[in-house]
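Now for our target.
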Amino acid sequence: MIVDVHSHYVPRGWPDLGWPEAPRLRVESVREAVIMMGDREFRRIQDDCWDPGRRLASMDADGVDAQIVSPTPVFFGYDRPAKQAAGICEVFNDLALDICADKRLVPFCQVPLQDPDLACAELDRALAAGHAGVEIGNHVGDQDLDAEGIVQFLQHCAQVGAPVFVHPWDMPEGPRLDRWMARWLVGMPAETHLSILAMILGGVFDRLPDTLRICFAHGGGSFAFWLGRFENAWHRRSDVIGVSEFPPSHYLDRFSVDSVVFDERALRLLVDTMGEDRVMLGSDFPYPLGESPVGSLIREAEFLSGTARAKLLGGNAQRFLGQAWNPPKSGTEG
């Protein structure tokens, strides 16, 4: 069973939300559209964002049996009033179920994370409707994942058994980051490993049950590379480094990361650091910076044993999804 834990969708029927800078779709043809932020083009997309037939055909071509399908983060609505954001999530999540009618496509919902009570309510509604988990952004404004309301939501995810996929979003802008796609090449990795630090050094893992299943996108950013630096700082400057009960390396079995790192040396570091049970195939399909063919890095990595390769390609993802997902029969060989 080959499972891709990191892909995104955009519903073609996304409505006009009614405020000037609201994300909207400018449909240009049957197969093409543009995500607009007000009058500004954000990203050109094609029908593999919303057409399940096209998505399944791409999966077949790459030998992928199942795919977790998560929202595109620009639609989160974290900057809106909470009740309005809850309405956005409800519409978006219901449209996702149309895209994911085939059980090979596993829908993850979004929630109004700025309000923990509304976020818990929408998660419960979405799970009851057919979603298998939830995607959240790595921060809400200036609040990281150790903010009290977000911890409350994560506790609820653990209680109801919902897997959580954390995706970076809303990266800083400025003259130094607005060229060369630096917001994606530098900002996304930095945001991702900052959110892991927030959960470790902010003491979140000490407060959450170990039943929480949580995965960080993009290989966890630069976390694996700089773990030694974080460890050194925790021991040498414990007076200023966080409130965690244990050093950062103690928490490596509390979260997972995807494999979107594009280089065998980076994948080896991830597996060496996190362990072969904590890395899962991810592609970032269908966006241009994603892996194609999906799974090629893991399939071709010479250092992986057959057992480890099977775990990364799908075994770990099946454990991450848990009982909420009824997997299809595998039609491919790993």
User: Anything to note?
Assistant: The mean pLDDT is 90. The chain has one domain: 75-324. The CA atoms of residues 2 and 314 lie 5 Å apart.
